[in-house]
Specification:
By secondary structure, the protein is α/β, with parallel strands linked by helices. It is built from ten helices and eleven strands. The strands form two sheets. The protein has a six-stranded mixed sheet, sandwiched between helices. The chain has a five-stranded mixed sheet with strand order 1-4-3-2-11, with helices on both faces. Strand 8 (172-179), helix 7 (186-195) and strand 9 (199-202) form a beta-alpha-beta unit. 48% of the residues are buried. The structure holds zinc ion.
């Protein structure tokens, strides 16, 4: 039996949380502690009343998520935020959150695992953020339409769907980049051009990215923010559960996005 803080320490070291850069409002690591030893772990993409309730129903007392409680910065504990915190405390459930350390990890990363899930073999990093790569890139030789279909199949298993910027039938994908979540920015597009990518697969992106893509010989596939970030938390929860010798399960709570 492990305590929550022991397991959180294990995960922090595994993910190198201290050394990994992240957005100013990301709080990586243990966000809410509890009293009892960890008896079961639940993994979810987001911290919400729905996923906390899912953890309660599963009999878990540690919830591991990708998007934690504090994205809004300083905020009063009222309304939905209070309900989340109250639900955690009333049921003595701890909350562990890992954002970019989980996206970027060389074995548990969302982008890496998602790329493999849709049949791609990563060969290097993509989507640089300060000192890390949030995504992966590699080579292939396949119909872009087949890649879009594989993304659609995966997204469909998580309550979503995949859409793609415009492309001609018969177009082939030879050099691709994958970055999970909201991975598209002007920097990402610039990096894609430098790497000679012809296809980017991400979760979601702004409308301008599809306009830009068409003019730069790129196709961008948007497979859903939620779907593309389901794999990292599961891999992390499995490692933590293995360490503690307890069971774990995934709490599906698709956002449709
Ligand atoms: Zn995300």
């Amino acid at each position: 039996m492990s305590t929550t803080s022991e397991l959180a320490h294990f995960a922090n070291e595994l993910l190198r949380c201290r050394e990994t850069p992240d957005y100013a409002l990301a709080l990586n690591g243990l966000q809410v502690d509890n009293r009892a030893p960890v008896r079961r772990i639940a993994a979810a993409v987001d911290c919400s009343q729905r996923t906390i309730q899912g953890a309660i129903d599963a009999g878990a007392n540690l919830l591991v998520v990708h998007h934690g409680l504090f994205w809004g910065g300083l905020q009063p504990l009222v309304g939905a935020q209070l309900s989340r915190v109250r639900l955690l405390l009333d049921h003595d459930i701890a909350l562990y959150s890992a954002h970019l350390p989980l996206d970027a990890h060389e074995a548990l990363g969302n982008s890496l695992l998602f790329a493999r899930e849709i049949g791609l073999t990563p060969a290097g990093g993509f989507a640089r953020y300060q000192t890390i790569f949030c995504g992966v890139h590699g080579n292939a030789d396949m119909l872009t339409g087949d890649l879009v279909a594989a993304c659609g199949h995966f997204a469909g298993r998580h309550g979503g769907h995949a859409i793609a910027s415009a492309y001609e039938p018969g177009r082939r994908t030879r050099r691709w980049g994958v970055v999970s979540g909201a991975g598209i920015s002007p920097d990402t597009i610039r990096e894609a051009m430098e790497l000679g990518l012809d296809t980017i697969i991400t979760g979601e992106g702004p409308h301008w990215s599809a306009v830009d893509a068409a003019e730069k010989g790129l196709v961008i596939v948007y497979a859903g923010h939620y779907a593309t970030e389901t794999l990292g938390v599961q891999a992390l929860a499995a490692r933590m559960a293995d360490r503690a010798g307890v069971p774990w399960s995934f709490i599906a709570a698709p956002t449709g996005l």
